[in-house]
């Protein structure tokens, strides 16, 4: 193996320059501030690892990541832990744990049993650890490398023959196999990588992966595709990453978070931060000469949040990532960006941002399940530090749950339409030709529940509720107009503000963090940032109904934060005024 001396070592001689021959030599200018940041962050991680490395409850992914942190410090000449013998015993413990946790078939349990994809996450780190130690080539780490090589040779065939659960798992396995193949070549590994790639990359023309997730798709898939690109000589994969990062620019919030409302995975109602993308933005800034990507990367570095020390190993492995970035250019901060693939729009006016979302999977697949977009939030608004994390609507209508729009239409430059029609049947007697003397009818779905009623063959009478939500951007905020038509019933609109601010103009309800705007205008303030909302709709109390799919098993869709309710009865037309100045 060819060794490098620029930093600690590299697994490959293939660099960004090979993907883009016009790019200047990466070693001509080194970003010293970037290296100093990663070094300091990693040293802090090492201090923590040394205090908790002997934790029998750690998953293999946690064990591998702890080992990666120690090895990055040990092999990096500028680290205060460089060739520090005090790291060898902890590293030995972690390396042996990697071997102990491995099944005879080469796989690991990480929640899922004998899981090729979950094993691949750990194996990528193990490959990186072995490669850095091999490049460093210290006699003291030779025993560690022997154990690690045994782990990798045992895992490779299992990954080359194993299966997956989700779209991004294919790319995680491909990346782990690319790394393993590079260290210990085996034509089975290369063939399996090509099998997965031959299925096609699950990316839409607007740059969104099919899982629509910043956690389970973008952050993971981008990293894996880049790994396969430089290890297997497939530069065409970089185009997918570039398109996704370009889309990500429009999902970024001013405080470094990434909007996830359209996700099909668990992060659809969680907070994710952009720091996970640091080396991806750096790599594509260098590859494409895109100053916008430089700006995002530098913003992540300046913010200093997250586990930035984890990236030191990547830079030691691929020194070209430490090159000075292209001259930063402003990332977009004043835009309206439409994403047809997920029926959403992102709007930003400097420190004010908004999301309009109508792309849940509920109308095509009316179930609640992992892998589906079911988040009922259809609007989000931020004014600086004042954050309205969700606006939701729940009519009291046969326990059918929240309003979920069947798509989104942009009807003018500043207007968006969301619509839903819910039809609930009353079932009439079966036609005589379907009746059974024994009464044993098929167990079928009514739309809300199952029963032995042979529902598909029954004539029906329907009760109907039609809902249209119109979102209009104004110079000082938004108007959100609710038109509900059909059977008379009650409804509740829920505004959920993130904790940390001050509410005014609202009345506290019986449960903690539940409030109601009865009349006038309410406000939510964080420092000098403010969102006003209203007018109030009266004192009627209506409980938010998540729907029978949740309540039957005691599930909940109650968001975390300060929840304000506006209630009324249908049919109605009500305009919620949200003002930011």
TrEMBL record:
Cross-referenced InterPro entries: Chondroitin_lyas
Signal peptide boundaries: 1-26
Gene3D superfamilies: Chondroitin AC/alginate lyase
This protein's UniProt keywords: Signal
Full protein name: Heparinase II/III-like protein
Organism: Kribbella caucasensis
